[in-house]
Amino acid sequence: MASPSDRKATIIDGKAIAETIRSEIADEVRHLSQKHGKVPGLAVVIVGSRKDSQSYVSMKRKACTEVGIKSFDIDLPEQVSQSELIGKVHELNTNPDVHGILVQLPLPKHINEEKVLSEISLEKDVDGFHPLNIGKLAMKGRDPLFLPCTPKGCLELLSRSGVTIKGKKAVVVGRSNIVGLPVSLLLLKADATVTIVHSHTYDPESIILEADIIIAAAGQPMMIKGSWIKPGAAVIDVGTNAIDDPSRKSGYRLVGDVDFKEACKVAGWVTPVPGGVGPMTVEMLLKNTLDAAKRAIVGFRKSL
Ligand SMILES: NC(=O)C1=CN([C@@H]2O[C@H](COP(=O)(O)OP(=O)(O)OC[C@H]3O[C@@H](n4cnc5c(N)ncnc54)[C@H](OP(=O)(O)O)[C@@H]3O)[C@@H](O)[C@H]2O)C=CC1
Ligand SMILES: Nc1nc(=O)c2c([nH]1)NC[C@@H]1CN(c3ccc(C(=O)N[C@@H](CCC(=O)O)C(=O)O)cc3)C=[N+]21
């Protein structure tokens, strides 16, 4: 008889799934430009010079170029004032060649994130971070124009792996505006019973242990041990944490919020870090930009 330690989870290959989606998007972009003579445009705004933000932004810009989306690069200095940044957003709102606008987070402390995100035109909010888009996500019977990219990527990974959500117990670890909260709302819309664990939760282990689906987005390296996972559960690891690793040239490596090795022995499905949710986030951004361009160019309407 197989002992629990022989159990082998299916590793969800986010990178491969993202590549498939990328070629579908590239085909659609080509089709759109042949038929209408216009290409989708994405403005990526970065303020300051945080290393991690710069690396994420360059990944997004490179991905755009690869599928034929025109990337508008807006690099602003750390000291830029809130009103200058909002002025830039307004300019992009009225530029007909720009179909999507992304303001990379976090912003410097002197800038009010919510104020800036609220100024992005709803039709161009490809990050899905506009308060009205999030509000609609939270309400029954309302559909936001765009779903936030990381949460949308998590659900896409589940559905492409054949994991159903309806009626399942889902536990989300983290409640941030960009991941934890919207992914909880999406799971709820998909008819899961959702519990949210955060930094004040008493005994997170026993709550997580009940989950059929775990979404880990706490930013705590390898916090979730194998013994916290119900055998057969689907584990989606959003965490992207750099930890010191002197054996690497870079001096660090990326780990998730889940102990991947242990999870592989217990879970039914598990996503790796890197190569899981991260590449899907980028793909969902391209997809949202394509949808925004279709709406603007051919008046395409799609319920999300
Ligand atoms: N792969 C991808 O595409 C993306 C990956 N990420 C990664 O996901 C992780 C989360 O990002 P983000 O949501 O922006 O992070 P935040 O720091 O904004 O939020 C973290 C959340 O986790 C909760 N939390 C922190 N520590 C614990 C703990 N010990 N137990 C339970 N809950 C805890 C916090 O609780 P409280 O609210 O009480 O403070 C908070 O709600 C990071 O590693 C980030 O790098 C983020 C975006 C995209
Ligand atoms: N306005 C805004 N929108 C965002 O979507 C947004 C943001 N701000 N701020 C920061 C977070 C973080 N984020 C990631 C995107 C891709 C990977 C990704 O592709 N990761 C690769 C590894 C990348 C590497 O090797 O460094 C992977 O997991 O395989 C990770 C994290 C988007 N974010």
TrEMBL record:
<dbReference type="GO" id="GO:0035999">
    <property type="term" value="P:tetrahydrofolate interconversion"/>
</dbReference>
<dbReference type="Pfam" id="PF02882">
    <property type="entry name" value="THF_DHG_CYH_C"/>
</dbReference>
<dbReference type="InterPro" id="IPR020867">
    <property type="entry name" value="THF_DH/CycHdrlase_CS"/>
</dbReference>
<keyword id="KW-0378">Hydrolase</keyword>
<dbReference type="InterPro" id="IPR036291">
    <property type="entry name" value="NAD(P)-bd_dom_sf"/>
</dbReference>
<dbReference type="InterPro" id="IPR000672">
    <property type="entry name" value="THF_DH/CycHdrlase"/>
</dbReference>
<dbReference type="GO" id="GO:0004488">
    <property type="term" value="F:methylenetetrahydrofolate dehydrogenase (NADP+) activity"/>
</dbReference>
<keyword id="KW-0511">Multifunctional enzyme</keyword>
<feature type="domain" description="Tetrahydrofolate dehydrogenase/cyclohydrolase catalytic">
    <location>
        <begin position="12"/>
        <end position="127"/>
    </location>
</feature>
<keyword id="KW-0554">One-carbon metabolism</keyword>
<keyword id="KW-0521">NADP</keyword>
<comment type="function">
    <text>Catalyzes the oxidation of 5,10-methylenetetrahydrofolate to 5,10-methenyltetrahydrofolate and then the hydrolysis of 5,10-methenyltetrahydrofolate to 10-formyltetrahydrofolate.</text>
</comment>
<keyword id="KW-0601">Photorespiration</keyword>
<comment type="pathway">
    <text>One-carbon metabolism; tetrahydrofolate interconversion.</text>
</comment>
<dbReference type="InterPro" id="IPR020630">
    <property type="entry name" value="THF_DH/CycHdrlase_cat_dom"/>
</dbReference>
<dbReference type="Pfam" id="PF00763">
    <property type="entry name" value="THF_DHG_CYH"/>
</dbReference>
<feature type="domain" description="Tetrahydrofolate dehydrogenase/cyclohydrolase NAD(P)-binding">
    <location>
        <begin position="148"/>
        <end position="296"/>
    </location>
</feature>
<keyword id="KW-0560">Oxidoreductase</keyword>
<protein>
    <submittedName>
        <fullName>THF_DHG_CYH domain-containing protein/THF_DHG_CYH_C domain-containing protein</fullName>
    </submittedName>
</protein>
<comment type="similarity">
    <text>Belongs to the tetrahydrofolate dehydrogenase/cyclohydrolase family.</text>
</comment>
<dbReference type="GO" id="GO:0005829">
    <property type="term" value="C:cytosol"/>
</dbReference>
<dbReference type="GO" id="GO:0009853">
    <property type="term" value="P:photorespiration"/>
</dbReference>
<dbReference type="GO" id="GO:0004477">
    <property type="term" value="F:methenyltetrahydrofolate cyclohydrolase activity"/>
</dbReference>
<dbReference type="InterPro" id="IPR046346">
    <property type="entry name" value="Aminoacid_DH-like_N_sf"/>
</dbReference>
<comment type="subunit">
    <text>Homodimer.</text>
</comment>
<dbReference type="InterPro" id="IPR020631">
    <property type="entry name" value="THF_DH/CycHdrlase_NAD-bd_dom"/>
</dbReference>
